[in-house]
Amino acid sequence: MPNNNEPAQNEQQQPTDGETGGDTSTATPTNLTQEEFNRQLDDRLRRERAKFSDYKELKEKAARLDEMEQASKSELEKANSRISELEAEREAAQAETLRYRVATRYGISDEDADLILTGTDEETLTRQAERIAARIDEEQRPRSPQPDPTQGRNGQGHANAADQFAAATQQLL
Q1: Contact 159/167 with Cβ under 8 angstroms?
Q2: pLDDT of res. 91
């Protein structure tokens, strides 16, 4: 019985070409002529090149996709930049509107509001405007001479010079 198994094992041990599906005639290079070898090599190269035949097309598509992504990133960056600019303009306009509203409430001129009202929130601007308005009121009050407490009647009943003059003229009449 061992003799029957031996030929089967020999058949399994013969080298086979994985590409040709077990064709033993091409398994050993010594059996091939140069033409057969070149033909097989050309066939194999064609099969390998066929695997990558669309490589250039895929590479071009990938490059176009990269360009589109870069363009969309650029558009997104432009949009984000524009949004930031508009938000800054809006905040500046709101601050200016608030400054002029507080200035109007306290009667402060536009020039003074631009120079002196520097706060960014309503509370700060209101405090600044109140201080400015108080100073403006103080400056605009008439400056009359202050009474001299040493002049006039004192607590002892003595008359001042004006009263003495009036009394003297009364006596002459």
Answers
A1: yes
A2: 92
